[in-house]
Amino acid sequence: MKGLIISSGKINDYTLLEDLIEENDYIVCADGGLNHLMNINKVPHVILGDLDSVSDLGIKYIKDNNIKVEKYPSIKDNTDSELAIIYLINKGIDDMILIGGTGTRLDHTLANLFLLKRFNKNGKHLKVIDDNNIVTYVVDTIEIERKQGWFISIIPINYEGIIVSLTGFKYPLDNKYIEFSSTLGISNEIIEDIGIIEIHKGEALVFESLD
Length: 211
Description:
Blueprint: E1 2-6, H1 14-23, E2 26-30, H2 34-39, E3 46-49, H3 56-64, E4 68-71, H4 80-90, E5 95-99, H5 106-119, E6 125-129, E7 133-138, E8 141-145, E9 150-156, E10 162-167, E11 173-178, E12 194-201, E13 204-210
Parallel strand pairs: 1-2, 1-5, 2-3, 3-4, 5-6
Antiparallel strand pairs: 6-7, 7-13, 8-12, 9-13, 10-11, 10-12
């Protein structure tokens, strides 16, 4: 099964959101993510969080549509987005997408990106998507189709850095070491039909970004 988590961050392209809803089997709203679904008149399978970002209109929407609520205290050790991921994993869902996890709060954005490192293991797969980006955690090999106007960035997220090879790219690499905090892997382009990224050692976030 595939699960979609909708958080309260920035979503401008509701066509993208509607497509993701159609492609996924189970829809979770993380607290204020309900506002996005209300804008397109869609109903999630569950809403969870402390509900501090849900308006009175949202509460009415929940009641009118008989939406299941998993309520948590406002003082807790996890963000609502993280709780949503854990909820899906406990339901046996291994393939997950988080949308609405980026926006003006850079602390929330960074924390949500690091959730990729935490939860992409033991057969679980999590991506973060927004209007302009697809972010994937990679420790082995990933193949990406070329899309006009899109850039690819590879950012090491382990202290030791990564050793990476790139095939089908404007700037190819062959077993190249990229140290942690380096910008060497930023803004590459796929020039073949498929770009292949091989992480020989280390961990990276791979960004597909539309400029």
